Amino acid sequence: MSDLPPLIALIEDEDHLARGVLFNLELEGYRTHHESDGDAALNYLLQAPAAGPQRISLIVLDCMLPGRDGFSIARTLREARRFTPILMLTARSRPEDVLEGLEAGADDYLPKPFDLTILLARIKSLLRRTAWQEQQPVPEQDAAPDVYSFNHRTIRFDALELVAPNRVTQLTLMEADLLRYLTEREGQIVSRKDILEQVWHVHEDTDTRAIDNFIVRLRRYIEDDPSEPQHLLTVRGVGYRFVANP
């Protein structure tokens, strides 16, 4: 049973698109499950085993669905501490969908219409990253661990975890990518445009309030008092600055 191929849950209401994706996933050797309604999908995802060979390995989730939408599904799963990787499908003309998906807890996104080879590549990448995390080999003696420490907190980029006193927070890929981008530029001002283009690869003009909401959540992870941030500071009218030792 342990040798079962990964199970991919496709949540997509466009029948012709779903059939094509499922066909190609099965050709690649994956097991599949399909839901076309948001409420039914959430019920299935919450009841699925969280561990073991029958667990869902990855969710391909459309943002617009009948019933509950994809953003709500992603948010509810994360609140329930279900950290199955989520690849969000978004509308190409709505970059705000990308930000809302990332804010809700998606690990990656793909705008519609998309090339099936790109979808398969993104799926393989997320599954590979998950496999690396689960194996978590002990670093070689001379190898530096992929971590960043500040103020009694440690970001473990390899395990997608933020370890703080009395708490361990599971990070999404996008949260970890943004924290890495900020910590690598410690003390520097990082503009909202930088975040959009360099971290999330969104090049269109869009409402930056989604970024602000995303930052609010990161502050809950890293600040002693998120209402009075000391590490993740707002630079009014520009963006943000990370300070390790305020």
Topology:
Layout: E1 7-11, H1 15-27, E2 31-35, H2 38-47, E3 58-62, H3 70-79, E4 86-91, H4 95-104, E5 108-112, H5 116-135, E6 147-150, E7 153-156, E8 161-164, E9 167-170, H6 173-184, E10 189-191, H7 192-199, H8 209-222, E11 232-235, E12 239-242
Parallel strand pairs: 1-2, 1-3, 3-4, 4-5
Antiparallel strand pairs: 6-7, 7-8, 8-9, 10-12, 11-12
Describe what you observe in this structure.
This protein has 246 residues and is of the alpha/beta class. Helices cover 39% and strands 22% of the residues. The chain has 2 domains: 7-135, Response regulator (Rossmann fold); 147-242, Winged helix-like DNA-binding domain superfamily/Winged helix DNA-binding domain (Arc Repressor Mutant, subunit A). The chain has 8 helices and 12 strands. It has a 5-stranded parallel beta sheet, with helices on both faces. It has a 4-stranded antiparallel beta sheet with strand order 6-7-8-9, with helices on one face. Strand 6 (147-150) and strand 7 (153-156) form a beta hairpin. Helix 2 packs parallel to helix 3 (70-79). The longest helix is centred in the middle third of the chain and has 20 residues, at 116-135. The radius of gyration is 19 Å and the shape is globular. The model has no long low-confidence stretch (mean pLDDT 87).
Which tags fit this structure?
246 residues; alpha/beta; Rossmann fold; Arc Repressor Mutant, subunit A; 2 domains; five-stranded parallel β-sheet; 8 helices; 12 strands; 39% helix; globular
